[in-house]
Write a structure and sequence with these properties.
single chain; 159 residues; mainly beta; two-stranded antiparallel ribbon; 10 strands
């Protein structure tokens, strides 16, 4: 019997903002924090499944401030890199095998039976949400990070 358990926290995410109005000519930058939320409030509370269509607390972010003399041009966003954590992962893979010695067709021959199962409990492991504040799908998790439960059987004859 063998097993592999994977338990890890999510990756650090930087909230980006596509902003063509940046006066410095850089259209891809970090998002602006609204100042109304503590760092612990940037991600909505609850299970990942309850946040699939809204992982982030949208009220914590806003467009960068206007600094241009034309009333349109904006500055850079003030959020830091890696300020939020994506969904974590908890996964278990197992394998069971049994080798039977045989004396046919040669001495010390064997037959091995093996069963392997990946993601044994079939828990969905979600990918990171869309982290671009300017995107219409900001905060939406649209895919999983690992396969659903997969099993395989094998027989190996050694001689």
């Amino acid at each position: 019997m063998a097993g592999v358990a994977t338990i890890q926290s999510g990756t650090a995410l930087t909230i980006a903002d596509t902003n063509p109005m940046n006066v410095f000519g850089i259209s891809e930058d970090r998002a602006q924090l609204s100042g109304e939320c503590a760092r612990s409030q940037l991600v909505r509370r609850g299970s990942v499944e309850s946040k699939l269509n809204g992982y982030f607390n949208v009220s914590c972010f806003m467009r960068p401030p206007v600094i241009g003399a034309d009333g349109i041009g904006t500055a850079f966003g003030n959020s830091g890199t890696g300020i939020v954590e994506g969904p974590g992962q908890a996964n278990l893979d197992i394998a069971l095998s049994k080798a039977l010695r045989q004396n046919w067709p040669r001495e010390n021959s064997s037959v091995e039976f093996r069963a392997e199962m990946y993601n044994v409990f079939n828990h969905p492991q979600f990918s990171n949400p869309d982290a671009n504040f300017a995107s219409p799908t900001f905060g939406v998790i649209s895919s999983t990070a690992v396969n659903p439960r997969v099993g395989q059987l094998a027989v190996r004859f050694s001689f």
